[in-house]
Amino acid sequence: MNQPVSSCTPTSQAEWQALTDKLTLEGRAYLNGAYQWAASGGTFTSISPIDGRELTAIASCDQSDADQAVMAARSAFEAGIWSQLAPAKRKAVLLRFAELIEAHGDELALLETLDMGKPISHARNVDVPATARAIRWTAEAIDKVYGELAPTPHNQIGMISREPMGVVAAIVPWNFPMIMAAWKIAPALATGNSVILKPSEKSPLSAIRLAALAEEACVPAGVFNVLPGYGHTVGRALALHMDVDCLVFTGSTNVAKQLMIYAGQSNMKRVWLEAGGKSPNIIFADAPDLKKAAAEAASAIAFNQGEVCTAGSRLLVENSIRGEFVELIREALKTWRPGHPLDPATTCGAIVDQAQLDRIIDYIGIGQSEGARLVEGGQRILENTGGLFVQPTVFDGVNNQMRIASEEIFGPVLSVIGFDTADEAVRIANDSIYGLAAAVWTSNINTAHKVAKALRAGSVWINHYDGGDMTAPFGGFKQSGNGRDKSVHAFDKYTELKATWLVLE
Ligand code: NAD
């Protein structure tokens, strides 16, 4: 097993590079307590978007690995080695898991950066702590959850309890590989389920490494399994599996819809979906601090290269300040210039792969052909590095019917849309198939609350963008999904409610 690669976090690109050179990359699946290659022997190559370098071979799991993993997960569940453990004991193991994630923070951050291109400073200071925090918070909560007694007649007792679902398959995306995994595996494990995690084929390294840390924390064999591979092979096999009780997913709306079909075609497994977004960020002329609003609007589209489900990709600006505000955004975006992801000063990294870069460049072309005004960026850059980089891009004069305003791009491309009244802003904001998040900036408390109430979104932020912590549920309205990650509400997804009724003699 790998030891922590460093006790002292690097502070320069050269030091991170030196650490990279020492890394041993694991590409095998983790199944029933051991690393192993796919039963078929199939592999695919993980390629770094930073420079096109081949990182390592990854097990390409398929149906037979899914069958094996489900069998192992089921027998661990039935044996009760985890599912029947006292919540306080599961808590202790998960707390140790969180500690190990922190102890291996440099290594995990590096895996994330090499695999999907995000800046190392964000991987180290955002992704790693948020992953550990999600597991710790959830573990801390699990031995404080009580059942209920129904208000029965005197001679009867109605007990309402929560039981684990059984075997949970978690399918996650590549934009925040560890955080998205932690939001699923923490409540799934805490509530006593056995879990099979399928990371994205674009970013499997950190999930594979997490398996060893879970083992070191004493999660029993079979309780936590990691199957790397493609969506249409191992993902589909898990989603169609007759012995998976619950399928949790974060990813695109198209795949989310497909998973609902798979559940209907198989065993009606519970399906919980966190899907896409096209979030409106609404700036009124009376916003308390336009410079701060512009700085956060820039971050809302450029952080993580815009590959964020809650990216503030539709910027609705009151027309009386639109020109001024667009200039403030352009100024703020100067601090989001793409650079080498291993340089700790870099704020904007590489795009995850060629297909995603092509998609972003295509949408920039679509915006121009639709008649939107390109006012910032628009180009692929740093091509000579072999890496996949694009400038943060701003279109002004966008209308909400244009494809750049209605379709999720999942890159640093901002659409600025003007409005004149609060009603118009709300109408435009809600005119979307998505409903993940929204923000409103105003000094007027009535406007703030009226607009926040009217917005059809799972998260609404007032005078800031992307707030919240583990105490707040996260998820979407409409085609952004169903169910909620984070907070005690997440336990709903991983438990069945049971009513046990007793009539006293
Ligand atoms: P994606 O839907 O292409 O893939 C997500 C996962 O599903 C991957 O592991 C993939 O292998 C798997 N998959 C693909 N096809 C499958 C199939 N037929 N059966 C089973 N599994 C399949 O999404 P992505 O490109 O990895 O991630 C980007 C998307 O994720 C964006 O739409 C973004 O908005 C969304 N996202 C949502 C949230 C949220 O919390 N709502 C958070 C992060 C990302």
Report on the structure:
This protein has helices spanning 13-22, 63-79, 87-103, 105-116, 120-142, 177-190, 205-216, 231-240, 253-265, 290-302, 322-332, 354-369, 403-406, 422-430, 445-454, 491-494; strands at 29-31, 34-36, 43-47, 54-59, 148-149, 156-164, 167-171, 194-198, 224-226, 246-250, 270-274, 280-283, 314-318, 373-376, 380-381, 389-390, 393-396, 413-419, 434-435, 437-441, 459-462, 477-478, 495-503. The chain folds into 2 domains: 25-275, Aldehyde Dehydrogenase, Chain A, domain 1; 280-468, Aldehyde Dehydrogenase, Chain A, domain 2 (3-Layer(aba) Sandwich), CATH 3.40.309.10. With 505 residues, the protein is α/β, with parallel strands linked by helices. The chain binds nicotinamide-adenine-dinucleotide. Nicotinamide-adenine-dinucleotide binds next to helix 8 and helix 9. Nicotinamide-adenine-dinucleotide (NAD) is lined by residues 171-175, 180, 198, 200-201, 230-232, 235-236, 239, 250-252, 255, 258, 274-277, 309, 408, 410, 436, 476, 480-481.
Widest β-sheet, arrangement of strands:
14-17-18-13-12-20-21
Helix/strand/pairing class, anyone?
alpha/beta
Domain module count: 2
User: Helix coverage percent of residues?
Assistant: 25-40%
The appropriate CATH architecture of the largest domain is 3-Layer(aba) Sandwich
What is the topology?
Elements: H1 13-22, E1 29-31, E2 34-36, E3 43-47, E4 54-59, H2 63-79, H3 87-103, H4 105-116, H5 120-142, E5 148-149, E6 156-164, E7 167-171, H6 177-190, E8 194-198, H7 205-216, E9 224-226, H8 231-240, E10 246-250, H9 253-265, E11 270-274, E12 280-283, H10 290-302, E13 314-318, H11 322-332, H12 354-369, E14 373-376, E15 380-381, E16 389-390, E17 393-396, H13 403-406, E18 413-419, H14 422-430, E19 434-435, E20 437-441, H15 445-454, E21 459-462, E22 477-478, H16 491-494, E23 495-503
Helix pairs in contact: 2-8, 3-5, 3-7, 4-5, 4-7, 5-6, 10-11
Nicotinamide-adenine-dinucleotide is lined by residues 171-175, 180, 198, 200-201, 230-232, 235-236, 239, 250-252, 255, 258, 274-277, 309, 408, 410, 436, 476, 480-481.
